[in-house]
Amino acid sequence: MTTWTSPAISSMRLERPRSLAHALDLLEADRGLTPMAGCTDLYVGIHFGSLKQRRFLDLQPLASLRKIQKRPDGTLVLGALVTYSQCLDSPLVARALPMLASAAKEIGGVQIRNRGTLGGNLGNASPAGDTLPVFLAADATVVLASARGVRRVPISQFFLGYRKTARRHNELITEIEVPPIAGKQWFRKVGTRAANAISKVVAAGVRGEGITFALGAVAPVAMRAYAAECALGSALPLSEAHRALRSEITPIDDLRSTAAYRARTACALLTQFWSETR
Amino acid sequence: MKLRINGTTFRVEAHPLERLLDVLRIQCKLTGTKEGCGEGECGACTVLLDGEPVNACLVPVAHAEGRSITTIEGLGGTEGSHPLQRSFVEQGAAQCGFCTPGMLISASVIPAGARREEIRCALAGNLCRCTGYSAVYRAVELARAKRARRRAR
Description:
CATH topology of the largest domain in chain A: Uridine Diphospho-n-acetylenolpyruvylglucosamine Reductase, domain 3
Largest sheet of chain A: 5 strands, antiparallel
Number of helices of chain B: 6
Shape of chain B: globular
Oligomer: heterodimer
Strand order of the largest sheet of chain A: 4-5-10-6-7
Number of helices of chain A: 12
Distance between the termini of chain B: 44 Å
Number of domains of chain B: 2
Radius of gyration of chain B: 15 Å
Helix content of chain A: 25-40%
Radius of gyration of chain A: 19 Å
Largest sheet of chain B: 5 strands, mixed
CATH class of the largest domain in chain B: Alpha Beta
Number of strands of chain B: 5
CATH superfamily of the largest domain in chain B: Beta-grasp domain
Largest interface: A-B, 33 and 38 residues
Helix content of chain B: 25-40%
CATH class of the largest domain in chain A: Alpha Beta
Distance between the termini of chain A: 64 Å
Low-confidence stretches of chain A: none
CATH architecture of the largest domain in chain A: 2-Layer Sandwich
């Protein structure tokens, strides 16, 4: 059998840890090590040469990060390597966080859902990541582990800028903790087609005693729409909530949509959220 | 590295980050799996990894080690003996044919007796640029219905 190495990867290196502790030691020792999970984003960059990174940490051997669990206090704990398909199949997710199942259902095709992971979606921090508004609306907590210990970051403080997160180079996203949610959950994605499309605008919300509403693809980061939430919560007319929403989003024109369409659609989604969760 | 493909063990020497797609086509000479977009959009490179459809263009070969891989060659091969393949032929479900191996692999895990909507969802990650979807759905529907009838007997 002939050995053949594609030019794109010949200069790259893959570390395959034996355990989580080993993975964290490797991250501690090498600043340039990039965690690699389902590869659905990473491999596009590798293949088309747009990725600067050369050294990768394979998370696939870390089976402990694949679990979906519920703690006695009702907290839903999703391992970073949980795939979208797992979310769709999980009775725990269906019961405690149905808006995550709704989001998972519309991500990619089945091939992508079988590979893409929740931790990857968060770590990649694309402004259009479909699970990001869900976790923002759910007030989730991102659990970051390093060789020095564990740090919990509220999701509202996790996304720092375009594809920039609070994760430090020596840290790994290990879990996402979702507190029990009282209220109706809502999710909607607007894309070119129902499957295999990156969102033009994506939104998730919870309406109970409190109101949370989060959006993707209308700013450099997925974001909570605090001003719009406040307007809705104070029983102001919807037009006021729309005005508030427009003041806090910063959509752009790109290959998928326009700023004007995104602003109009974000308002339409807010209206739908409000009428459908009555 | 050892790969278990279509029930046969292949020994390959490959960089762990090599795409499973390239290892299958270039090293294992299993060229039934096609490359379309190379970015996980089109599904032409769909194979089964432990029975689940994945895009072989987005799988480092390291992730396929020690797992069971099924390619179109393992489904019904060039004889086209698999019931889905025969149904595709009967219904004229292939035009240029480039998407067909991926379509067949994705269709192979659709449960017997699946409805049109389930079939559409299961094949949403497989693009046909000749736009022959209706014939594809019909072929899968008929093959799966036949299978359900055989099971019922």
